[in-house]
């Protein structure tokens, strides 16, 4: 039986057409994935399903269980929201009201749609919290959202979605803001509640790996239009459309191992760093060998960003030493070490031209008229000489990241530390920037430290990997040995959680995870509250 | 350029800017204007007053006295009001300049300085913001010798007590700017604190601080008028709108015109500057399309 | 919590001590000698010395300040001719001008200032929150414009100008109201309110503009937040969203500001009190400053500082009470 039937949906904002002729069917109890990069119109579709599209123009038809939603009254829509179609949003940190207890927020929705008594609603809230594996749900129902970790909040939102037994759950990028191990847990949970409650799932993501293991069918969207649609097993294994092929090709792949002969260039020995009561980096010792790419991987709070900033001398370590070719790093800034930053929006001064930003390190080194040098660099990173006079806001994210690379290259450093350089980019742009970094590394015989949360990216680009956990090194070794024979339990957990675009492999891993760690390690520390001192 | 165009499209801003501009010109050319009128602000004209009714002016607006004369003294109202603009704007603008200097200096120092520098400077800022400054200003102004130049003193007192808001904004912006990766990038390349402050921080401060400054200007005018109204600000015979309003309170049953002229001028000038501030803010910070926050 | 309170109290003591030292220092830099002023014309050196001793001005400035501090905590004695006058703790000394205990002057004046502050705050909050909410919800364009105008005007008028206008309109022109004089609430509540209504309005014109602005910004920001989108996606009616989420979010800064404003008006509504001839704390200060009446000036500044410090602590407590994310420690 068809639960949701969308026909020729068009959504327009002002002069732009966000969705342009989308059609699909979703069976009761089925799971459909919508995949696309930013600007593909996937989120606009999700909001339109609930009539939450605001000022946007809607054409076409959305039939939910026999009711035409595009022409439904506000009252009809309100009855459907939460009870018929429940939504799980991207940002668990802000999606719950900070002023109300988690249990009360769930109970409020339940009471609203069922007219249940307060007591019954409270009991229902506890019940669904238990269903999403929140430990000690009676107590946790009385907690405020800020007392939950990110993963727990997303569980609470899923509990809220379950409260009224909806026929359809729409999850819009439900795991994008989460760490990779938590992401795996949440995806497993969504899969589990779908089976348990019989609700259909519409899973929206930019990541092929996220939909691969959780959906029966998939739609690939680009700029508001459907590129390819079909069974997940078929589309992700034998894609027909060129764009789907590109997307799959952009997923990082392991590359052949290299032999590194160089001696240690950067030595980190016994380094620790505390911020007030929080130990960010705890007694880390490692070498970066000349000519290699060292990958540092870890989840949020693992200390990898602090470590990378200490490696370029931005933050002085509390204990231990960091030396570059024998000299303390604090005295080697500028010429020898450079950094490529994560957010290309914040890494360039919005008030200065691109060329001026690149010129800074050169001017500090005494080069007074660096324009010619910089224009050559801009060409090298795939931009035009004329971009010298552009301002950052005139460039796309990928172009800005290329500028960031050019700036790091300008003083001809021996070592470049890249802190999550591609994590804010779309997959296809990500692949291009990674390829550029690799080219430049080869051409200039650079040594590179590559910090990321993404194990798949590292496998492609790094020679050796350092796995960080709670500020310390959990495991260190050649890419092949760490990925194929992980020793540390945390490394195993990380590797099992990597989303893969191959549906069969994704299901195999889910089975492994279910067998391995059933409900263990779910409840992390709550995130801090504002404190008045 | 587009910013400027958007400003010119804002009718409220334009109205405010024109009035504010006229007032600035009046203040600058006060001696010229009074000379044109053939009057000066300090000459008494007892012959124009009705001594039988306690000194109420005999005539209203005349060809000689464009806005009439003051009750009690018979001084030319036009000349006094024009010179009053000079005091009001002069004090407000010089206080503003000092406030920006102190506020930005302390704010940037707190933002870039270490934990203790920041703690001390922030506490100091909080204190000046929390304390009702009018009370301290009154105490201060009453004590200093009468011979000191009053308007300059007022500007200094207003600035010394009123830099807190600027400092808080400058500190907040500095703290946010210094975590931007482009500041880190500059430091990785070897730029020192002073160079970072000058090249990466100060240009970023200009917009938020200046939009805020646009609001302090009318607030300074209000403070000056208030202090003069209380009799601790500008002393006679130097004219000031606040002081005129203060003496008008004793005359307002008999001579409402004497309240109306400085009162209306003060209100219109203040409103003009607030409209300018509001327009600037809306253009500089397009996310905040609403009025002053 | 205990640690927080201890730190607060400690901070408050430092602030108050600093404040009193500054005021003391200022007065010793002053060119006028209060003893000469008090002694009056035809003052003999002997008489002057006697006056000095009676006023407690015969010791060195640090010693005088020390005496003042002792008096504050333990009480102190003043020589009065042959006798000794005891001033119990907390002793702020005697007014040079009227010879009354400063504590009595302050307790006499405080009810006036408190009446002014409480009424003005209630009026400002009612008008400000109402106007801010109505315009924050963007239901009527015309309303939005009116509130915009109100807010701008609130920035642009000094309180004494509003006061003058109100007096002129209601007391001179229309003669609906008497010229304000203070009638204690306990004597005649109706007369109390009738006399205070104009000062309340004058303060509220300015104060409510700030509250309207804050409410509107708060409501609009809250309504744009993700959790409001969640509430909408779960079918919660708009009215309920506004009440339980948007207003709640807007309330947080408002509550803290109210506490601080209340103290500020109580301590420093100098202009309003002068304008309307209300015998409040502010008016006491202006008079004392003009007479170089050191004990009264010190007393008023300390009271002001005390009120501000308490209000800030109360604001913090309220902040923690209305926002569960905030912890005091």
Describe this structure in words.
The complex is a heterotrimer of chains A (533), B (293) and C (329). With 533 residues, chain A is of the alpha/beta class. In chain A, 36% of the residues lie in helices and 25% in strands. In chain A, helix 3 packs across helix 4, helix 7 (180-197) crosses helix 18 and helix 14 runs parallel beside helix 15. Chain A is globular, with a radius of gyration of 25 Å. In chain B, 70% of the residues lie in helices and 1% in strands. The two termini of chain B are 25 Å apart. With 329 residues, chain C is mainly α. Helix content of chain C is 74%, strand content 4%. Chain C contains 13 helices and three strands; from the N terminus they run H-H-H-H-E-E-H-H-H-H-H-H-H-H-H-E. A two-stranded antiparallel ribbon of chain C has the order 1-2. The interface between B and C is large, with 44 and 51 residues. Strand 21 (530-532) of chain A pairs parallel with strand 3 of chain C.
Poorly predicted regions of chain B are 286-293
SS-based class of chain C: mainly alpha
Query: Tell me, what's the shape of chain C?
Result: globular
Tally of strands of chain C: 3
* Number of discrete helical segments of chain B: 12
Order of helices and strands of chain B: HHHEEHHHHHHHHH
Instruction: Please mark out the parts of chain C with pLDDT under 50 across 5 or more consecutive residues, or reply none.
Output: none
Strand order of the largest sheet of chain B: 1-2
What composes the largest sheet of chain B? 2 strands, antiparallel
**How many beta-strand elements of chain B?**
2
Mass-distribution shape of chain B: elongated
> Secondary-structure element order of chain C, as H and E?
HHHHEEHHHHHHHHHE
Q: What is the assembly state of the chains in this entry?
A: heterotrimer
Strand residues, percent of chain C: under 5%
Helical content of chain C stands at over 70%
Number of helices of chain C: 13
- Largest sheet, strands/sense/barrel of chain C: 2 strands, antiparallel
Q: What gap, in angstroms, lies between the N and C termini of chain B? A: 25 Å
From the alpha carbons, calculate the radius of gyration of chain C and give it in angstroms: 24 Å
Question: Using CB atoms under 8 Å apart, which protein chain pair has the greatest interface?
Answer: B-C, 44 and 51 residues
The whole-number mean of residue pLDDT values of chain B reads 82
């Amino acid at each position: 039986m068809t639960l949701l039937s969308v026909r020729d949906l068009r959504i327009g904002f002002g002069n732009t057409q966000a969705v342009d002729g989308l059609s699909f069917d979703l069976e009761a109890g089925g799971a459909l994935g919508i995949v696309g990069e930013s600007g593909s119109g996937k989120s606009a579709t999700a909001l339109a399903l609930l009539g939450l599209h605001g000022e946007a123009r809607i054409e076409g038809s959305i039939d939910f269980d026999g009711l035409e939603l595009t022409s439904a009254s506000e009252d009809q829509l309100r009855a459907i929201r939460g009870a018929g179609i429940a939504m799980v949003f991207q940002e668990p940190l802000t999606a719950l009201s900070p002023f109300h207890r988690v249990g009360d927020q769930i109970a409020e929705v339940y009471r609203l749609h069922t007219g249940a008594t307060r007591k019954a609603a409270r009991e229902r809230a506890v019940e669904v919290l238990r269903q999403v594996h929140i430990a000690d749900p009676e107590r946790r129902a009385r907690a405020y959202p800020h007392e939950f970790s990110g993963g727990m909040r997303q569980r609470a939102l899923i509990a809220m979605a379950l409260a009224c037994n909806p026929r359809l759950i729409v999850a819009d990028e439900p795991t994008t803001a989460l760490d990779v191990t938590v992401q795996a847990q949440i995806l497993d949970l969504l899969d589990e509640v779908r089976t348990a409650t019989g609700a259909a799932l519409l899973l929206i993501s930019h990541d092929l790996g996220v939909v691969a293991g959780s959906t029966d069918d998939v739609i690939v969207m680009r700029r508001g239009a459907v590129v390819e649609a079909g069974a997940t097993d078929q589309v992700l294994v034998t894609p027909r459309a060129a764009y789907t092929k590109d997307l799959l090709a952009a997923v990082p792949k392991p590359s052949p191992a290299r032999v590194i002969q160089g001696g240690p260039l950067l030595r980190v020995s016994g380094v620790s760093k505390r911020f007030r009561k929080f130990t960010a980096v705890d007694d880390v010792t490692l070498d970066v060998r000349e000519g290699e790419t060292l990958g540092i991987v870890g989840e949020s709070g693992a200390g990898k960003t602090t470590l990378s900033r200490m490696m370029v001398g931005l933050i002085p370590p509390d204990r231990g030493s960091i030396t570059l070719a024998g000299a303390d790093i604090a005295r080697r800034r500028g010429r020898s070490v450079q950094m490529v930053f994560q957010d290309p929006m914040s890494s360039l001064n919005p008030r200065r031209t691109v060329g001026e930003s690149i010129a800074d390190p050169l001017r500090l080194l005494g080069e007074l008229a660096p324009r010619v040098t910089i224009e050559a660099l801009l060409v090298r990173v795939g931009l035009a000489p004329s971009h010298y006079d552009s301002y950052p806001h005139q460039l796309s994210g990928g172009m800005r990241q290329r500028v960031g690379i050019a700036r790091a290259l300008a003083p001809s450093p021996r070592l470049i530390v890249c802190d999550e350089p591609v994590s804010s980019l779309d997959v296809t742009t990500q692949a291009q920037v990674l390829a550029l970094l690799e080219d430049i590394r080869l051409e200039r015989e650079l040594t590179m430290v590559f910090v990321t949360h993404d194990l798949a990216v590292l496998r492609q680009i790094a020679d050796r990997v350092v796995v960080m956990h709670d500020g310390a090194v959990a495991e260190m070794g050649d890419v092949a040995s760490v990925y194929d024979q992980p020793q540390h339990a945390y490394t195993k957990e990380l590797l099992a959680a990597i989303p893969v675009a191959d549906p069969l492999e994704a299901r195999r891993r889910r089975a492994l995870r279910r067998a391995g760690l059933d409900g263990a390690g779910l409840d992390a520390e709550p995130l801090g509250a504002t404190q008045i001192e | 350029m587009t910013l400027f165009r958007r400003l010119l499209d804002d009718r409220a801003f334009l109205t405010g800017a024109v009035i504010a501009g006229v007032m600035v010109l009046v203040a600058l050319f006060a001696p010229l204007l009074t000379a044109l009128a053939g009057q000066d602000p300090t000459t008494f004209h007892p012959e124009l007053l009705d001594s039988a009714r306690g000194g109420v002016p005999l005539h209203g607006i005349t060809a000689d006295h464009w806005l009439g004369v003051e009750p009690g003294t018979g001084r030319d109202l036009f000349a006094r009001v024009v010179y009053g603009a000079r005091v009001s704007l002069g004090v407000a603008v010089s206080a503003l300049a000092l406030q920006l200097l102190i506020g930005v200096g302390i704010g940037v120092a707190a933002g870039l300085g270490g934990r203790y520098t920041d703690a001390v400077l922030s506490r100091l800022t909080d204190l000046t913001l929390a304390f009702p400054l009018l009370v301290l200003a009154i105490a201060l102004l009453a004590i200093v010798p009468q011979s000191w130049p009053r308007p300059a003193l007022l500007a200094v007192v207003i600035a010394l007590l009123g830099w807190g808001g600027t400092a808080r904004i400058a500190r907040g912006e500095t703290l946010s700017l210094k975590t931007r990766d482009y500041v880190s990038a500059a430091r990785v390349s070897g730029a020192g604190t002073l160079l970072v402050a000058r090249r990466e921080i100060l240009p970023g401060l200009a917009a938020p601080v200046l939009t805020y400054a646009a609001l302090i200007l009318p607030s300074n005018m209000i403070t000056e008028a208030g202090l003069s109204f209380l009799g601790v600000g500008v002393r006679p015979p130097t004219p000031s709108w606040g002081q005129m309003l203060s003496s008008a309170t004793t005359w307002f049953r008999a001579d409402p015109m004497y309240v109306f002229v400085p009162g209306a001028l003060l209100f219109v000038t203040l409103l003009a500057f607030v409209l300018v501030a509001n327009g600037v803010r809306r253009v500089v910070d397009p996310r905040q399309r609403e009025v002053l926050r | 919590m205990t640690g927080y309170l201890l730190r607060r109290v400690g901070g408050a003591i430092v602030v108050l001590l600093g404040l009193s030292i500054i005021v003391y220092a200022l007065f010793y830099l002053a060119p006028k000698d209060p003893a000469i002023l008090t002694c009056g014309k035809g003052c003999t050196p002997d008489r002057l010395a006697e006056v000095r001793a009676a006023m407690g001005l015969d010791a060195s400035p640090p010693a005088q300040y020390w005496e003042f501090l002792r008096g504050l905590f333990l009480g102190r004695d003043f020589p009065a001719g042959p006798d000794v006058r005891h001033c119990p703790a907390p002793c702020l000394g005697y007014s040079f001008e009227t010879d009354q205990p400063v504590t009595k002057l302050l307790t006499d004046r405080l009810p006036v200032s408190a009446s002014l502050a409480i009424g003005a705050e209630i009026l400002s909050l009612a008008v400000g929150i109402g106007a801010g909410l109505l315009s924050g919800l963007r239901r009527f364009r015309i309303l939005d414009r009116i509130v915009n105008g109100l807010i701008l005007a609130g920035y642009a008028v000094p309180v004494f100008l509003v006061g003058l206008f109100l007096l002129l309109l209601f007391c001179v022109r229309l003669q609906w109201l008497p010229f304000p004089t203070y009638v204690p609430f306990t004597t005649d509540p109706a007369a109390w309110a009738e006399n205070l209504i104009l000062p309340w309005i004058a303060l509220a014109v300015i104060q409510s503009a700030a509250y309207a602005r804050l409410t509107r910004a708060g409501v609009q920001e809250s309504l744009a937040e993700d959790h409001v989108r969640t509430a909408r996606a779960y079918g919660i009616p708009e009215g309920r969203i506004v009440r339980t989420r948007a207003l709640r979010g807007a309330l947080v800064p408002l509550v803290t500001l109210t506490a601080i404003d209340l103290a500020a008006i109580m301590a420093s509504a100098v202009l309003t009190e002068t304008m309307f001839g209300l015998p409040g704390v502010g008016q006491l200060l202006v008079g004392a400053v003009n007479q170089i009446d050191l004990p009264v000036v010190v007393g008023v500044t300390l009271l002001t500082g005390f009120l501000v410090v308490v209000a800030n602590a109360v604001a913090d407590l309220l902040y923690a009470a209305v926002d569960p994310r905030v912890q005091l420690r």
